[in-house]
Amino acid sequence: MSNLDLEPVPSVCGGRGFVVAEPVRELLSPRKVKLGESTEVRRLLPNLGRRMVGAWCFVDHYGPDDIADEPGMQVGPHPHMGLQTVSWLHDGEVLHRDSTGSLQTIRPRELGLMTSGRAISHSEESPKRHARHLHGAQLWVALPDVHRHTDPHFEHHAELPLVTAPGLSATLILGTLDGTTSPGTTYTPIVGADLTLTRDADVRLPLDPDFEYAVLCMSGETRVDGVPVVPGSMLYLGCGRTDLPLRAESDASLMLLGGEPFEEELIMWWNFIGRSNEEIGQARAAWMESARFGEVKGYDGPRIPAPDLPPVPLKPRGRVR
């Protein structure tokens, strides 16, 4: 999914200087952003209060939207570099195309994982004949320097492992949770899981104390470590936790995101993650000149042009709150 802001704000991310080394309860409010022709998303990361959670650096939550008489998601070809995109659905379908030749329909609770590496382009759209409702999240994972120039590739995992407990079913999206590991490729110590809770469930989820965590509420009413979290909001939890208390006031669904704090400093601008102003500028120029990022074949619509760069140089400054 693209960051379609016409005036994207550069995000300076990474570094351990502002990582909270103890458990906290920091509620993050979303910012509404128009995506494509008919989809509005709630952007949780980057946020004025928090830029990253481990290597997770971008989180959009959208829906549930009634698109029975709408085209649904229509995001034309656009570029990425230096990151992975994670497509995650609760309702609906998204048709993914990319410049490596991938063509895949992603359905609810299937993992669509695109590693941009040095350069890739892709499009996302609701199929012409689609389900009535669209509800999901789009997330980005920053690639560390040693892997950010890898070959671009796409993975689709229709079957993912589960962690279960009374009142809880956790689908492993990425990484490892309670000894169970997702088949999705990762490049840093990280975890992503979709948590389904039944009404009145009261559980404690085991965590790694070296990771920092956040929880995104997808639906329902839940208390996370005693804090009410409503759909479309995210609770940042800090580090140092060995478990996480969860109580469902109704049937509910959450996304758990975590990982080792990302040490490297980086710049995130538009759909690029780099390390210098020059690198970002070169990537923008390459996209506008139809170079380097390849061609997305089969999408019925134009490529998305890159916005103008800001008038001042972009500089990586580490984590900023």
UniProtKB/TrEMBL annotation:
Classification via InterPro entries: Pirin, Pirin_C_dom, Pirin_N_dom, RmlC-like_jellyroll, RmlC_Cupin_sf
Domain of life: Bacteria
Domain Pirin N-terminal span(s) in chain numbering: 41-141
Domain Pirin C-terminal: 193-290
Span list, region Disordered: 302-321
Pro residues composition-biased segments: 304-314
Family: Belongs to the pirin family.
Protein name in UniProt: Pirin family protein
Organism: Streptomyces longisporoflavus
